[in-house]
Design goal:
4-stranded antiparallel sheet, mainly beta
Length: 400
């Protein structure tokens, strides 16, 4: 795999199984917006780049992208330290970047592993309507992470100033074995974050209250892996892990009735939901009565990772072994869920979603299963390992 030349770097730095499914067509086909054969960065100088290579703090080909979100003409990228050689765990590109191998700028700056005052290993993030970025620094399933999991809030309209940090207690998220996987923000009645903990040891749904500055956790069998959904194949690799709760989505603002959180397991096809009014009551999490309020929405067409809901109540979700994306509207029976698009070449491990200000839905397809295999080496036969695709939906995020 060919490395981008340092000269170019410096120059650029300075300048449910439904009853009905539908196949993709021209109006529902994603196009490639950006793609990487490897992720490289806007180094300050050739010397910094050479130092990072020689020290091993940057290993070309080891940087994975696990989450994407949009704000003001930038796409922010979460890059967990799955492997060694990841020089920063959050970065961004401009939406007018070149399509192939765009250089990633560090956010808020370069970060060092094992420095608990910085971001250590970020899996996901969300950006609310006020321009506050909520960063989940909670990828704690490898020995590379040494610090307690935390939630860090940055004001993107004030120079990425840190406005709040919350460190999760051990009984909420494990420092060794915790996995803060994905997050949605609810500011319709107070300000809350709902977070999936994909921990193989203690999975669950975490609720964080900004006003109380407290977190609590709900644990239920619906958040475990489904045994009969294991051993599916993506790009020639059998996924044998019994991975629990993973994807999460929130119904949009302004709809009649209370909002609902939707979630699913990575090893699973069932989609579940629960009312946010229940999640917001900390006392309810200490008992078991809330479990009766969990609804089974239906079964997706295949196992999936990330998902997102837009302002019209359309839920988009990845379909891993089908190399595609599903779509369902909350006002319709789940039997009407459809396969929106699928592509064996460009949609390998459909993961995170984002919506911009112009009505485009972005999809991250990241080969993350390959990055998690320590024996897998990228080579010149991999022209595009990570892709961000987009589709015009003429909608906004669930936040609006």
């Amino acid at each position: 795999m060919r490395l981008i030349s340092v000269a170019v770097i410096i120059a650029l730095t300075h300048h449910c199984t439904g009853n009905q499914t539908q196949e993709s067509n021209n109006s529902s086909a994603f196009s490639v917006a950006y793609q990487w054969s490897l992720v490289n960065f806007t180094w300050n100088s050739e010397s910094d780049y050479n130092d990072a290579i020689s020290s091993g703090s940057y290993i070309p080909g080891n940087v994975a992208v696990a989450g994407i979100k949009y704000y003001k003409d930038k796409l922010y990228l979460a890059m967990p330290r799955i492997r060694d050689g990841v020089p920063t765990t959050v970065g961004y590109i401009s939406t007018n970047s070149t399509q192939t191998n765009p250089l990633v700028a560090p956010f808020p700056d370069w970060t060092t592993a094992d420095n608990c005052d910085q971001l250590e290993s970020v899996q996901s993030l969300e950006i609310d309507r006020n321009g506050t970025m909520w960063v989940l620094d909670g990828f704690r399933v490898t020995p590379r992470a040494k610090c307690p999991p935390k939630l860090v809030l940055y004001d993107l309209n004030d120079g990425a100033k840190v406005v709040h940090t919350f460190t999760f207690p051990e009984q909420i998220c494990l420092s060794r074995g915790g996995f803060l996987n994905d997050i949605v923000i609810d500011d319709s009645d107070g300000v809350f974050a709902y977070i999936t903990d994909n921990s193989p040891v203690d999975p669950g749904l975490i609720v964080y209250s900004r006003e109380k500055n407290r977190a609590w956790k709900l644990r239920d069998s619906t958040m475990f892996a489904e045994l009969d959904a294991a051993n599916y194949v993506v790009d020639g690799d059998k996924f044998t892990q019994l991975a629990p709760i993973d994807g999460i989505a929130l119904s949009p603002r302004g709809r009649a009735g209370p909002r609902r959180v939707y979630y699913c397991s990575l090893t699973g096809v069932k989609l579940y939901s629960i009312c946010t009014s229940i999640l917001k009551r900390e006392e309810a999490s200490s008992g078991g009565g809330w479990r009766d309020q969990v609804s089974v929405i239906g079964e997706k067409q295949a196992q999936g990772d990330g998902m997102m809901m837009d302002s019209k109540g359309d839920l988009y979700y990845g379909l891993l072994p089908l190399y595609g994306v599903g779509k369902w509207n909350v006002d319709e029976p789940f039997s009407r869920a459809e396969i929106l698009d699928h592509n064996r070449e460009t949609m390998i491990w459909t993961d995170s979603f984002a919506l911009d200000d112009e009505g485009y839905l972005y999809l991250l397809a990241n080969h993350i299963n390959k990055f998690q295999d320590p024996n897998y080496k990228w080579n010149n036969k991999d022209p595009a390992v990570i892709r961000i695709l987009k589709l015009f939906t003429n909608t906004q995020s669930y936040l609006y």
